[in-house]
Specification:
- With 68 residues, the protein is an all-alpha fold.
- The chain has one domain.
- It has four helices and no strands.
- It is globular, with a radius of gyration of 14 Å.
């Protein structure tokens, strides 16, 4: 129960922070080939690749948060 509340609070904070600091814009989604390459690198443990995937999927995260 607490983990759900903490996750929700963090998601809302992230959504709010992105809109305040980023002027309401998110990075564009990666092209499919580039996303595949980052997914393969992330699977091998590449932290930079994981961060790149997270950054470029923030639009989806924000959409899910708004619906929830």
């Amino acid at each position: 129960m607490y983990s759900t509340l903490i996750t929700l609070a963090l998601c809302n904070l992230l959504y709010f922070a992105l809109h305040i600091t980023g002027g309401g814009s998110f990075p564009h989604p990666l092209p499919p080939a580039e996303e595949r390459a980052y997914l393969l690198r992330a699977k091998e443990g590449d932290e930079e690749a994981k961060n790149k995937l997270i950054e470029h999927n923030l639009r989806l995260v924000a959409h899910i948060i708004k619906k929830g």
